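Fold it.
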Amino acid sequence: MTQVIAGHQLQTAITGGISAGNASATSVGPFAVTGIASAQDSYTDRPTVIYAPLTGVDFLKQLMTPIPPSAVLFLLQSGYSAERTMAMTLESINGVDNESRRAQRPADPRFTRLVELLSELQRSGAVESRIERKDGGETSLILFGPRRDPQIEAKRKKVRDILGLKRGIGEIHVYYGGYSGKDDEIDMMTRSMLQVMLELAAGVQVPESDVTQGKAAPGTPSSSLRSAARGGREAYFFNAIFTPSVANLNVSPWVVDTSLITTPF
């Protein structure tokens, strides 16, 4: 949206009339005076909204710029499952690689275990995130508040061990980029929206006849997203892009040389 133009119109109309006489069409009577007056107002509001689609350099920046870690934390804080959010938006975290179907790279088992643990901590309310803005900059933090539940503490310990974090820190800064090797911060290598779409495209299951005829390459099912199909609270937004049923699209032939993508919900 580039511009909103507010258009307002106010119209007022006042009419009046007066007549005097002592006769009508059928009789003669006493002298009389009659009058009539009326007023009318109308108000019209016609806003104009102008949209300009992104093109050129601006479009490429939006499409190819990596998703900021703060956006990933916002999704996690809003209740979106870590198993689905992190599996789709991250290339790696603290040097632990996510699966990439584009590169035909399997996920590091530690990554799969990490997102499972974070999802479990999410559901128990044992992990939170905070975004701090100071002096025009932005700082992202993951918070591990004090808990006395031994099971929760055991899961937190496993998370710290996987990420190489030292014990005893309750606030952990989150940065974008490759793993720095520091034991008091989390480094996320996030994907761009173009990479996310390519990962989704790599999982499209096309008809075998199209593969045989060389029209398309076979899709690669996602093991990490398939493992994310287990319980937890669902979010309808992610039903559109992050569920296994969409990440591994089923394509069936229709009419002649045409395919439909079916997305069961």
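Residues 56-262 form one domain.
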